[in-house]
Design a protein that fits this description.
This protein has 189 residues and is an all-alpha fold. The chain is built from 7 helices and 2 strands. Strands 1-2 form a two-stranded antiparallel ribbon. A hairpin with a 7-residue loop joins β1 and β2.
Length: 189
């Protein structure tokens, strides 16, 4: 038995599940960026049919983060890690700050309500375009170079680890969004 899967018979109409690579980027990096995109496509599928009531719902007791707050948080965290840990900058440029006007208060997520779904989707698209633009020219050497956190210097991280973390972070919150959506729908029935 060799290293290939050519001996396995596949069904002609079965969905083929495999990791791809983003074109134009070193394949090793491109596979991680593909995974980041795959998680985003799942997030977008889950939120695609939300109405404003569900986007803004903060749980039965009003003390949970709304879906809108979680979507904003996903974009905010992505930009924070990109500009801080990957690009090693202590401040985000005005272009990014303009996209992310809501601050966090004492360790809590920014409360984002009243924004239509189209604005949340647009923000996620714009921040992802920026991340792809900034990552386009990264070399394998830079991909694996440890960077000291520029703001509090408590840890070092490679861009490779940052992208892993962003995948993990968004997947976790997408599960949370899915749960809020299901519970909210039951509540509003």
């Amino acid at each position: 038995m060799g290293d290939t899967l050519s001996h396995i018979v596949t069904k002609p109409h079965a969905e083929k599940l495999f990791v791809r690579s983003v074109d134009g980027i070193a394949p090793e990096i491109g596979r991680w960026l593909w995974a980041l995109e795959e998680v985003r496509s799942r997030t977008l599928r889950i939120i695609g049919d939300l109405d404003q009531r569900l986007i803004d719902w903060e749980g039965h007791d009003g003390r949970e983060n709304s879906i809108g707050s979680l979507l904003y948080h996903i974009a905010d965290v992505e930009m924070g890690w990109l500009w801080g840990e990957i690009l090693e900058r202590t401040e985000m440029p005005p272009e990014i700050l303009g996209l992310l006007p809501f601050g966090n208060e004492s360790g809590c997520l920014a409360r984002v309500t009243g924004r239509p779904l189209s604005e949340h989707i647009s923000l996620l698209g714009r921040t992802r375009t920026i991340l792809r633009r900034e990552m386009a020219g990264i070399s394998l050497e830079e991909w694996r170079r440890l960077r000291l956190d520029p703001t509090d210097r408590e840890y070092e991280a490679t861009p490779e680890w940052v992208i892993f973390h962003l995948i993990e972070h968004e997947a976790m919150h997408t599960g949370q969004i899915s749960s809020l959506k299901a519970r909210g729908r039951r509540c509003f029935e």
